[in-house]
Amino acid sequence: MNPVNYLYLAALLFTIGATGVLIRRNAIVLFMCVELMLNACNLAFVTFSRMHGNLDGQIIAFFTMVVAAAEVVVGLAIIVSLFRTRHSASVDDASLMKL
Amino acid sequence: MENLIAPLIAAPLLGAAVLLVGGRRLDRVGHWIGTLLSTASFVFGLILFADLLGKGAEHRTLTQHLWTWIPVGGFQADVTFRLDQLSMTFVLLITGVGSLIHLYSVGYMEHDERRRRFFGYLNLFLAAMLLLVLADNYLLLYVGWEGVGLASYLLIGFWQHKPSAATAAKKAFLVNRVGDMGLSIAIMLMFTTFGSFAFGPVLSHTGDASEGKLTAIGLMLLLAACGKSAQVPLQSWLGDAMEGPTPVSALIHAATMVTAGVYLIVRSGAVFNAAPDAQLAVTVVGAVTLLFGAIVGCAKDDIKKALAGSTMSQIGYMVLAAGLGPIGYVFAIMHLVTHGFFKAGLFLGAGSVMHGMNDEVDMRRYGGLRKYMPVTFITFGLGYLAIIGFPGLSGFFSKDKIIEAAFAKGGTEGWILGGAALLGAAITAFYMTRVMLMTFFGEERWRNQPTRSPGAPSAEPAAETHGEHAEPHPHESPKVMTIPMIVLAVGSVFGGAFFSIGDRFLHWLEPVTGHSEGDSPLSAAAVTGATMVCLVIGVAIAWAQYGRKPVPAVAPRGSLLTRAARRDLLQDDFNHVVLVRGGEHLTRSLVYVDHTLVDGVVNGTAAGFGGLSGRLRRLQNGFARSYAVSMFGGAALLVAATLLMRAV
């Protein structure tokens, strides 16, 4: 199978994730979209690794997973505490950091 | 023997320090300490003079190096003194006349509770003036120059409780500052031109410098001389300086300090000899001032101000002579010395009259005083005969020589300058005769006079023993005051003859200043004759106006010229309109430029950045998703740019 197809898939997934980040308001959905973009990147890394015949891309994919796991832990904690205080998971409601 | 130069200056300096630091416990002896130290300085001067006379004419220069003041690379300023015939002449004049005036002040200031301080300032003045004439380089001379300016300021404003005295002191200081600026620029120019400002290197290398630079230095030195010596256009302070006590007017504003400008020009003779344009400017300033001062002197009713106008005029003669170059240097200094005698004597006489007349200065309230003050009358009269150039007295010899030298300049200039000097001699005879007649002859106008008007000058503190409004009881001054007057009168009578007969003064000073005979279109006898005619005309007119007719006690309105001369020929009005108003306009327009242009740029920049940041602030709206849009937009831009760069 032609590896370029995997790149198309990665681009598609990334676009879906990016669009989701921009148009959805629910913090959980937003979060899932970010994960989708991260995984699209991982897919692209692995594909390039395969195409160029070295392991650098695969190693970076592992790093990304570790960082993503850490991010999920922190991010979910923030979302939960936000929901507890404001009774809403909408990101537009948490817009206090402005001048 | 040169080790005696430093003590010469140190003695009055010590006196100033002791008297000013010593405080009230010295009040009872302070004046004698001051007089003693001043006399000590005079004695040192006499010893040095005897030493110089014992040497050959070419070896009469002593130098004493004390220490190196500022050693910085090529900039070398030494505290070195130089005593040659020129400085010796000044030393004897300054310390001699200075000591006599110290003695006189003991009597004159007797009732002043701040007499100790007065003597401290007088000693300070002597030290500064000696430093000025003994310095071996222009920078050290500048120290003395500023020192005498300070002493003059302190002494003019000595009765600082009188607002007029405080103002006059300030005015003298400020006007002098303009001249001092000229001296400091001249010193800087000397340093850039010659790499030094010591007399030796500067005055012996004038041939190496371009004439333009020498002219610039000369004009700056002339500016300095104008400030210190009250020459046009910086003359306005001298009349007001008469607010100071009379001994100060005699010592500083007649005999010594105001002649410092003449010293500067004669000392820098080598520079002027090589810069004819600057020399011409000096003669013009001298000629204009000698007429200016004489005209002012004719119109003043205040005896001291009339004498001040006369001082200005006589220094004009000296400056004129100094501007003539080697023809005139010796005669400038000779007139300076004889003028030191007779003008100091005249001022001391005026002080003595004021002392006996409840400090009245208006000559229209004098009259007939010769019976009451015989010694003052005789000494003042001898000074009067000396200044108008009565044959045989000192002014006759010295002024005549200057008029001769002016004619000897040759050409049209010679005729103009000589004519101005002759005219000046006639006016001098007029105004001095006027002073003499109004003070010592005529009716006794001080009897039964109406009480003093509130606007009249207030009495000096010395007058407190007499009632403010009482009729004055003219009396002769004490011996301590008359003795200095007698000594100075002797000097005024015999000084000129002593200097002139056998050309003594010429031979004495020639090695320093150089001398050349000009070719005069008139014979010496013709000039003397013309001077005599002018003298007689001046005296005759004055007698017709003030001797034959009674002098009105209230000044008549007078002609336009008289009224202008009473206002010092409008010098203050001129300064006010041109300098004060001009300065105000300049500062106002500068403030306007500052407010509109400079502040406009600064405030405009600030407002521009403020507005810009106000707009940029809107981007910070708190919505996470809009930040995400910026991020994506930015990333997309970066990718697009990268692709574009690779495509190119």
Automatic annotation (TrEMBL), chain A:
Signal peptide extent:
none
Identify its membrane topology class. Answer: Multi-pass membrane protein
Q: Which domain of life is it from?
A: Bacteria
A cellular component annotation (GO) from this entry: plasma membrane
Q: Name one GO molecular function term.
A: NADH dehydrogenase (quinone) (non-electrogenic) activity
Q: What are the TM regions of this chain, as residue ranges?
A: 6-23, 28-48, 60-83
Q: Which GO terms describe its biological process?
A: ATP synthesis coupled electron transport
Keyword presence, Ligase: no
Listed EC numbers: 7.1.1.-
Coarsely, its chief localization is membrane
Could you tell me what reaction this enzyme catalyses? a quinone + NADH + 5 H(+)(in) = a quinol + NAD(+) + 4 H(+)(out)
InterPro entries per record: NADH_UbQ_OxRdtase_chain4L/K, NUOK/Mnh_C1-like
Q: What class of enzyme is it?
A: translocase
Q: Which PANTHER family match?
A: NADH DEHYDROGENASE SUBUNIT 4L-RELATED, NADH-UBIQUINONE OXIDOREDUCTASE SUBUNIT ND4L
Q: Which family does it belong to?
A: Belongs to the complex I subunit 4L family.
Return the protein name.
NADH-quinone oxidoreductase subunit K
Question: Organism source for this protein?
Answer: Streptomyces echinatus
Q: Gene name, please?
A: nuoK
From TrEMBL, chain B:
Q: Which UniProt keywords apply?
A: Membrane, Transmembrane, Transmembrane helix
Q: Where is this region: Disordered?
A: 448-477
Kindly report the protein's main subcellular placement as a broad class: membrane
Question: What residue stretches are annotated with the NADH-Ubiquinone oxidoreductase (complex I) chain 5 N-terminal domain?
Answer: 69-119
The annotated regions of Low complexity compositional bias extend over: 453-462
Q: Which Gene Ontology molecular-function terms are recorded?
A: NADH dehydrogenase (ubiquinone) activity; NADH dehydrogenase activity
Compositional bias (Basic and acidic residues): 463-477
The residues covered by the NADH:quinone oxidoreductase/Mrp antiporter transmembrane domain are 135-417
Location comes to: Endomembrane system; Membrane
Q: Name one GO cellular component term.
A: endomembrane system
Mode of membrane association: Multi-pass membrane protein
InterPro entries this protein is in? NADHpl_OxRdtase_5_subgr, ND/Mrp_TM, NU5C-like, Proton_antipo_N
Q: Which Pfam families match?
A: Proton_antipo_M, Proton_antipo_N
Which Gene Ontology BP annotations are present? ATP synthesis coupled electron transport; electron transport coupled proton transport
Bilayer-spanning residue ranges: 6-22, 29-50, 86-106, 118-135, 181-202, 214-234, 246-266, 278-299, 372-394, 414-437, 483-502, 522-544, 627-645
- What PANTHER family does the database record attribute to this sequence? NADH-UBIQUINONE OXIDOREDUCTASE CHAIN 5
Identify this protein by name.
NADH-quinone oxidoreductase subunit L
Q: What is the lineage of its organism?
A: Bacteria, Bacillati, Actinomycetota, Actinomycetes, Kitasatosporales
